[in-house]
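ok so i was messing around last nite and threw this chain in just to see what happens. nothing serious, just curious
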Amino acid sequence: MDDRQLLTAPVKTEKMPPGIPYIIGNEAAERFSFYGMRAILVVFMTQYLRDANGELAVMTESKANEWYHLFLSLNYFLPVFGALLADAFWGKYRTIFWLSLVYSAGSLTLAFDHTRVGLTIGLTLIAIGSGGIKPCVSANVGDQFGSSNQHMLSKAFSWFYFSINAGSMISIPLTPVLLKFAGPGWAFGVPGVLMAVATVIFWAGRYKFVHIPPAGRSFVRENLNREGLAIIGRIAGIYVFVAIFWSLWDQSGGEWVLQAEKMDRSVQLFGYSIEILSSQIQTLNSIFILVGIVFCPYVLYPFISRIYPLNELRKMGIGLVVTAASFLVSAWIESRITAGFKPSIGWQVPAYILLSLGEVMVSVTALEFAYTQAPKRMKSIIMVLYLWAISAGNLFTALVHKFIANEDGTSKLPGATFYLFFAALCFVTAIVYTFVARVYKAKTYLQDETPAAAS
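result:
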Protein backbone atom coordinates (compact mmCIF):
# COMPACT_ATOMS: atom_id res chain seq x y z
CA MET A 1 0.00 0.00 0.00
CA ASP A 2 1.46 3.35 -1.13
CA ASP A 3 1.23 5.76 1.82
CA ARG A 4 1.38 8.74 -0.60
CA GLN A 5 -2.10 7.85 -1.85
CA LEU A 6 -3.70 7.85 1.57
CA LEU A 7 -5.83 10.64 3.00
CA THR A 8 -4.29 11.90 6.22
CA ALA A 9 -7.02 14.39 7.18
CA PRO A 10 -10.79 14.66 6.60
CA VAL A 11 -11.86 16.17 3.28
CA LYS A 12 -13.87 19.40 3.55
CA THR A 13 -17.41 18.34 2.69
CA GLU A 14 -20.90 18.45 4.12
CA LYS A 15 -21.59 14.87 2.99
CA MET A 16 -21.02 11.58 4.77
CA PRO A 17 -17.31 10.58 4.45
CA PRO A 18 -16.63 7.90 1.78
CA GLY A 19 -14.92 5.53 4.22
CA ILE A 20 -17.96 5.18 6.50
CA PRO A 21 -19.74 2.43 4.44
CA TYR A 22 -16.62 0.23 4.65
CA ILE A 23 -16.38 0.75 8.41
CA ILE A 24 -20.09 -0.05 8.81
CA GLY A 25 -19.83 -3.20 6.66
CA ASN A 26 -16.73 -4.36 8.50
CA GLU A 27 -18.39 -3.80 11.88
CA ALA A 28 -21.55 -5.69 10.89
CA ALA A 29 -19.55 -8.77 9.84
CA GLU A 30 -17.20 -8.62 12.84
CA ARG A 31 -20.10 -8.23 15.28
CA PHE A 32 -21.85 -11.19 13.61
CA SER A 33 -18.76 -13.21 14.44
CA PHE A 34 -18.39 -11.98 18.01
CA TYR A 35 -22.02 -12.11 19.10
CA GLY A 36 -22.61 -15.42 17.33
CA MET A 37 -19.72 -16.98 19.25
CA ARG A 38 -20.73 -15.28 22.49
CA ALA A 39 -24.37 -16.34 22.20
CA ILE A 40 -23.53 -20.03 22.52
CA LEU A 41 -20.52 -19.77 24.83
CA VAL A 42 -22.25 -20.47 28.16
CA VAL A 43 -24.38 -23.28 26.67
CA PHE A 44 -21.24 -24.78 25.07
CA MET A 45 -19.38 -24.75 28.38
CA THR A 46 -22.27 -26.32 30.31
CA GLN A 47 -23.36 -28.90 27.71
CA TYR A 48 -20.71 -29.56 25.02
CA LEU A 49 -17.24 -29.07 26.53
CA ARG A 50 -15.04 -32.18 26.32
CA ASP A 51 -11.76 -33.48 27.69
CA ALA A 52 -8.68 -34.62 25.75
CA ASN A 53 -10.22 -38.09 25.29
CA GLY A 54 -13.37 -36.71 23.72
CA GLU A 55 -15.55 -37.36 26.76
CA LEU A 56 -17.95 -34.74 28.11
CA ALA A 57 -16.30 -32.55 30.77
CA VAL A 58 -18.78 -29.72 31.21
CA MET A 59 -18.67 -26.83 33.71
CA THR A 60 -21.20 -25.97 36.39
CA GLU A 61 -23.47 -22.97 35.71
CA SER A 62 -21.60 -20.85 38.24
CA LYS A 63 -18.18 -21.73 36.81
CA ALA A 64 -19.39 -21.13 33.23
CA ASN A 65 -20.73 -17.70 34.17
CA GLU A 66 -17.42 -16.91 35.86
CA TRP A 67 -15.46 -17.91 32.72
CA TYR A 68 -17.90 -16.01 30.50
CA HIS A 69 -17.50 -12.74 32.38
CA LEU A 70 -13.72 -13.17 32.75
CA PHE A 71 -13.45 -13.61 28.98
CA LEU A 72 -15.49 -10.45 28.38
CA SER A 73 -13.42 -8.61 30.98
CA LEU A 74 -10.18 -9.60 29.22
CA ASN A 75 -11.72 -8.77 25.85
CA TYR A 76 -12.46 -5.22 26.98
CA PHE A 77 -9.25 -4.74 28.98
CA LEU A 78 -6.81 -5.48 26.15
CA PRO A 79 -7.89 -2.50 23.97
CA VAL A 80 -5.24 -0.45 25.77
CA PHE A 81 -2.57 -2.30 23.79
CA GLY A 82 -4.45 -1.83 20.52
CA ALA A 83 -4.80 1.87 21.26
CA LEU A 84 -1.08 2.22 21.96
CA LEU A 85 -0.22 0.40 18.74
CA ALA A 86 -2.63 2.58 16.77
CA ASP A 87 -1.89 5.98 18.27
CA ALA A 88 1.85 5.60 18.79
CA PHE A 89 3.22 3.12 16.25
CA TRP A 90 1.14 1.48 13.50
CA GLY A 91 -1.85 3.77 12.98
CA LYS A 92 -5.44 2.58 13.19
CA TYR A 93 -5.62 0.85 9.80
CA ARG A 94 -2.62 -1.47 10.25
CA THR A 95 -3.59 -2.23 13.85
CA ILE A 96 -7.11 -3.25 12.85
CA PHE A 97 -5.95 -5.32 9.90
CA TRP A 98 -3.25 -7.37 11.60
CA LEU A 99 -5.15 -7.97 14.82
CA SER A 100 -8.14 -9.09 12.75
CA LEU A 101 -5.97 -11.99 11.56
CA VAL A 102 -5.25 -12.94 15.20
CA TYR A 103 -8.99 -12.75 15.85
CA SER A 104 -9.66 -15.13 12.94
CA ALA A 105 -7.10 -17.61 14.32
CA GLY A 106 -8.97 -17.69 17.63
CA SER A 107 -12.26 -18.45 15.88
CA LEU A 108 -10.56 -21.25 13.96
CA THR A 109 -9.25 -22.75 17.21
CA LEU A 110 -12.73 -22.84 18.77
CA ALA A 111 -14.12 -24.49 15.63
CA PHE A 112 -11.67 -27.41 15.74
CA ASP A 113 -10.76 -27.90 19.43
CA HIS A 114 -13.65 -28.36 21.89
CA THR A 115 -11.57 -29.12 24.97
CA ARG A 116 -10.84 -26.74 27.81
CA VAL A 117 -7.36 -26.16 26.34
CA GLY A 118 -8.85 -25.23 22.97
CA LEU A 119 -11.40 -23.03 24.71
CA THR A 120 -8.64 -21.21 26.61
CA ILE A 121 -6.43 -20.66 23.54
CA GLY A 122 -9.34 -19.71 21.28
CA LEU A 123 -10.88 -17.22 23.70
CA THR A 124 -7.46 -15.70 24.46
CA LEU A 125 -6.72 -15.11 20.76
CA ILE A 126 -10.20 -13.66 20.22
CA ALA A 127 -9.74 -11.39 23.24
CA ILE A 128 -6.39 -10.15 21.86
CA GLY A 129 -7.76 -9.61 18.35
CA SER A 130 -11.21 -8.31 19.18
CA GLY A 131 -10.00 -6.32 22.15
CA GLY A 132 -7.12 -4.80 20.22
CA ILE A 133 -9.26 -3.48 17.37
CA LYS A 134 -12.14 -2.16 19.49
CA PRO A 135 -10.77 1.31 20.34
CA CYS A 136 -9.46 1.72 16.81
CA VAL A 137 -12.65 0.90 14.89
CA SER A 138 -14.93 3.25 16.80
CA ALA A 139 -12.29 6.01 16.87
CA ASN A 140 -11.81 5.48 13.14
CA VAL A 141 -15.44 6.55 12.65
CA GLY A 142 -14.76 9.92 14.24
CA ASP A 143 -11.49 10.38 12.33
CA GLN A 144 -13.43 10.59 9.07
CA PHE A 145 -15.15 13.85 10.13
CA GLY A 146 -14.06 17.47 10.21
CA SER A 147 -15.83 20.68 11.18
CA SER A 148 -17.76 20.87 7.87
CA ASN A 149 -19.66 17.64 8.39
CA GLN A 150 -19.49 17.23 12.17
CA HIS A 151 -23.28 17.63 12.21
CA MET A 152 -23.41 14.12 10.70
CA LEU A 153 -21.21 12.56 13.37
CA SER A 154 -24.13 11.49 15.56
CA LYS A 155 -25.81 9.85 12.56
CA ALA A 156 -22.61 8.00 11.70
CA PHE A 157 -22.26 6.67 15.25
CA SER A 158 -25.93 5.66 15.17
CA TRP A 159 -25.35 3.75 11.92
CA PHE A 160 -22.20 2.28 13.42
CA TYR A 161 -24.22 1.03 16.39
CA PHE A 162 -26.96 -0.08 13.99
CA SER A 163 -24.44 -2.30 12.17
CA ILE A 164 -23.38 -3.87 15.46
CA ASN A 165 -26.93 -4.92 16.20
CA ALA A 166 -27.77 -5.86 12.62
CA GLY A 167 -24.90 -8.35 12.69
CA SER A 168 -25.87 -9.70 16.09
CA MET A 169 -29.57 -9.91 15.18
CA ILE A 170 -28.71 -12.44 12.47
CA SER A 171 -26.01 -14.41 14.29
CA ILE A 172 -27.67 -14.79 17.71
CA PRO A 173 -30.64 -16.84 16.44
CA LEU A 174 -28.49 -18.71 13.89
CA THR A 175 -25.55 -20.01 15.94
CA PRO A 176 -27.66 -21.80 18.61
CA VAL A 177 -29.39 -23.72 15.80
CA LEU A 178 -25.99 -24.63 14.35
CA LEU A 179 -24.81 -25.73 17.79
CA LYS A 180 -27.84 -27.97 18.37
CA PHE A 181 -28.13 -29.55 14.93
CA ALA A 182 -24.61 -29.34 13.45
CA GLY A 183 -22.37 -29.23 16.52
CA PRO A 184 -19.84 -26.75 17.90
CA GLY A 185 -17.54 -27.02 14.88
CA TRP A 186 -20.05 -25.35 12.59
CA ALA A 187 -21.42 -23.11 15.35
CA PHE A 188 -17.98 -21.58 15.94
CA GLY A 189 -16.80 -22.00 12.34
CA VAL A 190 -19.46 -19.85 10.66
CA PRO A 191 -18.67 -16.82 12.88
CA GLY A 192 -15.02 -17.43 12.04
CA VAL A 193 -15.78 -17.16 8.32
CA LEU A 194 -17.64 -13.89 8.91
CA MET A 195 -14.58 -12.53 10.73
CA ALA A 196 -12.53 -13.25 7.61
CA VAL A 197 -15.18 -11.42 5.55
CA ALA A 198 -14.95 -8.46 7.93
CA THR A 199 -11.20 -8.29 7.35
CA VAL A 200 -11.63 -8.30 3.57
CA ILE A 201 -14.23 -5.52 3.70
CA PHE A 202 -11.92 -3.38 5.80
CA TRP A 203 -8.98 -4.00 3.45
CA ALA A 204 -11.15 -2.97 0.48
CA GLY A 205 -11.75 0.47 1.99
CA ARG A 206 -8.09 1.29 2.64
CA TYR A 207 -7.97 4.13 0.09
CA LYS A 208 -11.31 5.58 1.22
CA PHE A 209 -10.35 6.02 4.88
CA VAL A 210 -8.72 9.00 6.54
CA HIS A 211 -5.47 7.64 8.04
CA ILE A 212 -4.45 9.84 10.96
CA PRO A 213 -0.66 9.31 11.27
CA PRO A 214 0.56 7.78 14.56
CA ALA A 215 2.35 10.12 16.93
CA GLY A 216 5.45 7.93 17.28
CA ARG A 217 7.77 8.60 20.20
CA SER A 218 6.06 11.88 20.91
CA PHE A 219 2.87 10.00 21.90
CA VAL A 220 3.78 9.72 25.56
CA ARG A 221 5.04 13.30 25.77
CA GLU A 222 1.97 14.74 24.01
CA ASN A 223 -0.72 12.69 25.69
CA LEU A 224 0.45 11.47 29.07
CA ASN A 225 1.44 14.89 30.32
CA ARG A 226 -0.38 16.85 33.01
CA GLU A 227 -3.14 18.00 30.65
CA GLY A 228 -3.60 14.55 29.14
CA LEU A 229 -3.77 12.82 32.51
CA ALA A 230 -6.29 15.43 33.69
CA ILE A 231 -8.51 14.66 30.69
CA ILE A 232 -8.21 10.91 31.32
CA GLY A 233 -9.11 11.38 34.97
CA ARG A 234 -12.09 13.59 34.17
CA ILE A 235 -13.62 11.15 31.67
CA ALA A 236 -12.77 8.12 33.82
CA GLY A 237 -14.80 9.70 36.61
CA ILE A 238 -17.89 9.36 34.40
CA TYR A 239 -17.09 5.87 33.11
CA VAL A 240 -16.83 4.39 36.60
CA PHE A 241 -20.62 4.61 36.62
CA VAL A 242 -20.91 3.22 33.08
CA ALA A 243 -19.05 0.12 34.34
CA ILE A 244 -21.99 -0.75 36.56
CA PHE A 245 -24.31 -0.59 33.56
CA TRP A 246 -22.13 -3.16 31.77
CA SER A 247 -22.01 -5.35 34.86
CA LEU A 248 -25.78 -5.72 34.44
CA TRP A 249 -26.05 -5.66 30.66
CA ASP A 250 -23.64 -8.49 29.92
CA GLN A 251 -25.63 -10.81 32.15
CA SER A 252 -28.13 -10.98 29.29
CA GLY A 253 -25.67 -13.30 27.53
CA GLY A 254 -24.94 -15.46 30.59
CA GLU A 255 -27.28 -15.42 33.56
CA TRP A 256 -30.38 -14.54 31.53
CA VAL A 257 -29.64 -17.37 29.07
CA LEU A 258 -29.41 -19.91 31.90
CA GLN A 259 -32.59 -18.45 33.38
CA ALA A 260 -34.29 -19.01 30.02
CA GLU A 261 -33.21 -22.68 30.18
CA LYS A 262 -35.57 -23.07 33.16
CA MET A 263 -38.54 -21.33 31.51
CA ASP A 264 -41.31 -22.50 29.19
CA ARG A 265 -39.83 -21.61 25.81
CA SER A 266 -42.67 -22.90 23.60
CA VAL A 267 -44.46 -20.27 21.49
CA GLN A 268 -47.39 -20.55 19.09
CA LEU A 269 -46.67 -19.45 15.54
CA PHE A 270 -49.22 -19.94 12.73
CA GLY A 271 -50.89 -22.70 14.68
CA TYR A 272 -47.64 -24.56 15.41
CA SER A 273 -45.83 -24.85 18.72
CA ILE A 274 -42.15 -23.90 18.37
CA GLU A 275 -39.53 -24.16 21.08
CA ILE A 276 -37.14 -21.22 21.26
CA LEU A 277 -33.57 -22.15 22.19
CA SER A 278 -32.36 -20.39 25.33
CA SER A 279 -29.49 -18.66 23.51
CA GLN A 280 -31.82 -17.29 20.84
CA ILE A 281 -33.79 -15.09 23.24
CA GLN A 282 -30.87 -12.63 23.14
CA THR A 283 -32.05 -11.68 19.63
CA LEU A 284 -34.67 -9.53 21.33
CA ASN A 285 -31.93 -7.15 22.43
CA SER A 286 -30.74 -6.66 18.85
CA ILE A 287 -34.27 -6.03 17.61
CA PHE A 288 -35.14 -3.59 20.38
CA ILE A 289 -31.82 -1.76 19.94
CA LEU A 290 -32.49 -1.21 16.24
CA VAL A 291 -35.90 0.21 17.15
CA GLY A 292 -34.46 2.23 20.03
CA ILE A 293 -31.77 3.87 17.91
CA VAL A 294 -34.56 5.46 15.86
CA PHE A 295 -37.15 5.85 18.62
CA CYS A 296 -34.94 7.59 21.18
CA PRO A 297 -33.44 10.48 19.19
CA TYR A 298 -36.56 11.19 17.12
CA VAL A 299 -39.34 10.55 19.65
CA LEU A 300 -38.27 9.91 23.25
CA TYR A 301 -35.48 12.46 23.65
CA PRO A 302 -37.48 15.38 22.15
CA PHE A 303 -40.43 14.46 24.38
CA ILE A 304 -38.32 14.31 27.55
CA SER A 305 -36.46 17.50 26.62
CA ARG A 306 -39.70 19.48 26.76
CA ILE A 307 -39.77 18.79 30.49
CA TYR A 308 -36.13 18.04 31.31
CA PRO A 309 -33.59 19.35 28.73
CA LEU A 310 -31.29 16.47 27.82
CA ASN A 311 -27.57 16.35 27.17
CA GLU A 312 -25.23 13.37 26.90
CA LEU A 313 -24.67 13.09 30.65
CA ARG A 314 -28.36 13.25 31.50
CA LYS A 315 -29.20 10.56 28.93
CA MET A 316 -26.71 8.19 30.59
CA GLY A 317 -28.17 8.89 34.04
CA ILE A 318 -31.71 8.04 32.94
CA GLY A 319 -30.34 4.94 31.22
CA LEU A 320 -28.91 3.64 34.50
CA VAL A 321 -32.33 3.86 36.14
CA VAL A 322 -34.03 2.06 33.24
CA THR A 323 -31.37 -0.68 33.33
CA ALA A 324 -31.92 -1.22 37.05
CA ALA A 325 -35.65 -1.61 36.38
CA SER A 326 -34.94 -4.44 33.90
CA PHE A 327 -33.36 -6.46 36.70
CA LEU A 328 -36.47 -6.08 38.84
CA VAL A 329 -38.28 -7.99 36.09
CA SER A 330 -35.55 -10.67 36.11
CA ALA A 331 -35.86 -10.94 39.89
CA TRP A 332 -39.61 -11.50 39.60
CA ILE A 333 -39.07 -14.21 36.95
CA GLU A 334 -36.51 -15.95 39.16
CA SER A 335 -38.89 -15.84 42.13
CA ARG A 336 -41.52 -17.66 40.05
CA ILE A 337 -39.00 -20.30 38.99
CA THR A 338 -37.90 -20.82 42.60
CA ALA A 339 -41.56 -21.16 43.65
CA GLY A 340 -41.99 -24.10 41.28
CA PHE A 341 -43.84 -22.46 38.33
CA LYS A 342 -42.73 -22.48 34.71
CA PRO A 343 -43.09 -19.04 33.63
CA SER A 344 -43.37 -18.37 29.93
CA ILE A 345 -40.31 -17.06 28.09
CA GLY A 346 -42.53 -14.11 27.17
CA TRP A 347 -41.84 -12.66 30.62
CA GLN A 348 -38.28 -11.93 29.53
CA VAL A 349 -39.58 -9.60 26.79
CA PRO A 350 -40.25 -6.60 29.10
CA ALA A 351 -36.86 -7.17 30.73
CA TYR A 352 -35.16 -6.98 27.31
CA ILE A 353 -37.16 -3.89 26.34
CA LEU A 354 -35.95 -2.04 29.43
CA LEU A 355 -32.37 -3.33 29.08
CA SER A 356 -32.23 -2.29 25.41
CA LEU A 357 -33.65 1.14 26.17
CA GLY A 358 -30.99 1.54 28.85
CA GLU A 359 -28.34 0.47 26.34
CA VAL A 360 -29.33 3.16 23.83
CA MET A 361 -29.25 5.80 26.56
CA VAL A 362 -25.98 4.70 28.17
CA SER A 363 -23.88 2.83 25.62
CA VAL A 364 -24.64 4.68 22.37
CA THR A 365 -24.26 8.00 24.18
CA ALA A 366 -21.08 6.96 25.99
CA LEU A 367 -19.52 5.78 22.71
CA GLU A 368 -19.90 9.18 21.09
CA PHE A 369 -18.95 10.88 24.36
CA ALA A 370 -15.64 9.00 24.43
CA TYR A 371 -14.71 10.31 21.00
CA THR A 372 -15.85 13.93 21.27
CA GLN A 373 -14.22 14.45 24.69
CA ALA A 374 -10.80 13.22 23.49
CA PRO A 375 -8.09 15.53 22.06
CA LYS A 376 -6.98 14.78 18.49
CA ARG A 377 -4.04 12.54 19.39
CA MET A 378 -5.89 10.72 22.17
CA LYS A 379 -8.93 9.40 20.31
CA SER A 380 -8.05 5.71 20.63
CA ILE A 381 -6.57 5.93 24.12
CA ILE A 382 -9.68 7.70 25.45
CA MET A 383 -11.86 5.11 23.74
CA VAL A 384 -10.03 2.60 25.94
CA LEU A 385 -11.69 4.16 28.99
CA TYR A 386 -15.09 3.33 27.50
CA LEU A 387 -13.97 -0.25 26.87
CA TRP A 388 -12.34 -0.56 30.28
CA ALA A 389 -15.71 0.32 31.78
CA ILE A 390 -17.09 -2.80 30.09
CA SER A 391 -14.09 -4.82 31.32
CA ALA A 392 -14.47 -3.59 34.90
CA GLY A 393 -18.19 -4.32 34.87
CA ASN A 394 -17.65 -7.91 33.76
CA LEU A 395 -14.77 -8.42 36.18
CA PHE A 396 -17.05 -7.25 38.98
CA THR A 397 -19.75 -9.74 37.95
CA ALA A 398 -17.20 -12.57 37.72
CA LEU A 399 -15.91 -11.75 41.21
CA VAL A 400 -19.47 -11.68 42.56
CA HIS A 401 -19.99 -15.20 41.21
CA LYS A 402 -16.72 -16.31 42.76
CA PHE A 403 -17.43 -14.93 46.21
CA ILE A 404 -21.09 -15.93 46.49
CA ALA A 405 -20.39 -19.56 45.61
CA ASN A 406 -20.56 -21.91 48.62
CA GLU A 407 -18.47 -25.08 48.79
CA ASP A 408 -21.56 -27.27 48.36
CA GLY A 409 -22.47 -25.55 45.09
CA THR A 410 -25.20 -23.31 46.54
CA SER A 411 -25.14 -19.52 46.42
CA LYS A 412 -25.03 -16.82 49.08
CA LEU A 413 -27.39 -14.84 46.81
CA PRO A 414 -29.93 -17.52 45.85
CA GLY A 415 -32.76 -17.09 43.39
CA ALA A 416 -34.22 -13.61 42.98
CA THR A 417 -31.81 -12.19 45.58
CA PHE A 418 -29.03 -12.22 42.99
CA TYR A 419 -30.97 -10.00 40.58
CA LEU A 420 -32.28 -7.74 43.34
CA PHE A 421 -28.68 -7.15 44.43
CA PHE A 422 -27.72 -5.84 40.97
CA ALA A 423 -30.93 -3.80 40.62
CA ALA A 424 -30.23 -2.06 43.93
CA LEU A 425 -26.58 -1.53 42.96
CA CYS A 426 -27.59 0.17 39.70
CA PHE A 427 -30.21 2.39 41.37
CA VAL A 428 -27.65 3.60 43.93
CA THR A 429 -25.12 4.14 41.13
CA ALA A 430 -27.61 6.33 39.26
CA ILE A 431 -28.17 8.49 42.34
CA VAL A 432 -24.45 9.06 42.96
CA TYR A 433 -23.85 9.62 39.23
CA THR A 434 -26.33 12.52 39.22
CA PHE A 435 -24.14 14.56 41.56
CA VAL A 436 -20.91 13.79 39.65
CA ALA A 437 -22.45 14.63 36.24
CA ARG A 438 -23.53 18.07 37.49
CA VAL A 439 -19.93 19.21 37.99
CA TYR A 440 -18.50 17.72 34.78
CA LYS A 441 -17.45 20.35 32.21
CA ALA A 442 -17.62 19.03 28.66
CA LYS A 443 -15.16 20.04 25.91
CA THR A 444 -15.48 18.77 22.33
CA TYR A 445 -12.51 17.94 20.04
CA LEU A 446 -12.73 17.05 16.32
CA GLN A 447 -10.12 16.38 13.63
CA ASP A 448 -8.89 19.14 11.27
CA GLU A 449 -9.78 19.16 7.59
CA THR A 450 -7.98 19.30 4.25
CA PRO A 451 -9.41 21.10 1.19
CA ALA A 452 -11.86 19.11 -0.91
CA ALA A 453 -9.37 19.12 -3.80
CA ALA A 454 -7.22 16.60 -1.85
CA SER A 455 -9.65 13.84 -2.79
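not much to say yet. The chain has 15 helices and two strands.
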